[in-house]
Structure formats: structure tokens, C-alpha cells
Amino acid sequence: MNENNLHEHIARIQQDGFTVLPPQLTAAQCDEAQLHLDRLAEARDRGGFELIFNKARIFEQLYQALPALALIRGVLGADALLSGMHGSIVRPGEGGGGLHADGILTGHTRPTSMSLADGGKRITSHIMSLNTIWCISDFTLTNGATRLAPGSHHFEGLDMPEGALETAKPVAAERGSVVVFNVNTWHGPSKNESSANRYAVLNPWRRHWQRCEFEMGRAARPEVLERAGEQRIIFGEDAVSPTMERYLWDTTGGKPKNKPAGESGR
Length: 266
Ligand SMILES: O=C(O)CCC(=O)C(=O)O
What we know:
6 helices; 20% helix; 17% strand; globular; alpha+beta; 11 strands; 6-stranded antiparallel sheet
């Protein structure tokens, strides 16, 4: 992605609340991801669809896609954190319920964290967090593609803005593409009226100083962290607060200084 494209995508997220990046995964990579999603679906009730970078190497490719990372960092800062990685299958006949905005689990709209002083208003001046939906299937107007209500991220209230259900439209996107959106944007899967499953991977992102959905530096297997190479920063090991006096604390590794190198201590 060149500098101009990056600015265009950022402007679209600011104006509409979302943008779509052209394919970041090849057809072969999507095929492989789809196979693993089918396998993991069998263990869905036991968390099969959570933390899937630990479960098949193909999912590690999603945070190695540099154009996507450039956009995420262009919005959330160079030290943006991966908050989770979830598998998603919308089967024929599924989807099409209501819309929601993200962020109520660990984001700025977590209900028990909203204060009297907030006056029932969420933060709209800045983009606090992003969600990214990786299209492992082609997303079409009829197969359960994510639908988003353009401009709904500007509304300060916590309830769905009037008219959002009517204005929300499914996003058609080639497989391998990535739908990137402000978590304030109202969205949800549309109804899958086709005869095939709709496959996706959902990767939410947070600013470095926010809580993630998982303590990722601990949740990721050591070999996954190792293979992340330059991108290891997205797991937020350096975002872990010290549990002892700072001079004893390895701020990069997020662990006591006396732990031997390579031992996460977790
Ligand atoms: O699967 C989809 O299309 C939407 C996913 C979603 O609503 C979410 O990640 O919050």
C-alpha cells in the first residue's frame, strides 16, 4: 500500500466508519484457512474458534500482512495490539439478526466502566479500537457478508442510532480481503441465503494502553511468539504492568528481569 492509499483508507474509516482492503491472502491461503476453520468448528463449544493463531500456522499470516498492519498502525499507533483472533462460520440460513457495536468486553463502552460523568456517551473524537474481518470466503450480498451502517460510528449514544438497521448494507469483497472498521460502527453478519458456509477470521485491535480481550503475550504459544519476529510487539508483552519495583522488571518482555532469556515465566 502506498502513502496515498493509506491516507484514503484512513479517511474512509473516519468518514464512513469502515473500509475494505484488497486481498491480503491468496486463494491457496484462504483454502487452507477454510480447512482449518472446518476442523476447529468441531471443537467450537470448547473454545475451538478462539486464539486460532495457536491452532494452525496459516493464521499467523494474518498479522504478517504488511499493508493491513500499516493501516491498523496508521489508525491506532505503531504499538497497536492484537486483542484476539476468532474463527467465524455463518452457515446457510444463519446471520441476519440485529446490529451491534464492539467494545463492551474490554473496550471503552464496557457497561460497568461507564461512569456517571460519561453521561451515557461513548468516545467518538478518536478511534479507540478497530475490528478487522478477514474474508476467507468471497463476501457477497447474499451469503452472510458483514453489514455495516455507514456513519453510525459518529453517534455518541450507546443505543443503536435511528435508521442504522435500514442503512446497514452487506459489504461485497473478494476472498482474502479485509474489512477494517471502527468498533463504534454498528454492524453484524447479514443473512446467509446461499447454500454454502461463509468463512471469516475476526481480529480485533486495541491501542497499546487498553486492555485486550486476552492477555496475548501469555495466551500465545512460545513458538508462535518466536515466529512473529518483528511483529511480536502486537502481542503486547511490553504492555504488561510490572508486578514489582520497576528496576527489577524487564519492560520489553513483561516479566521479572531475573527470568532466563527465552523463558516467559508464564
Ligand atoms: O461475522 C460477521 O460478519 C460480524 C462479526 C462481528 O459482528 C464481530 O466481530 O463483532
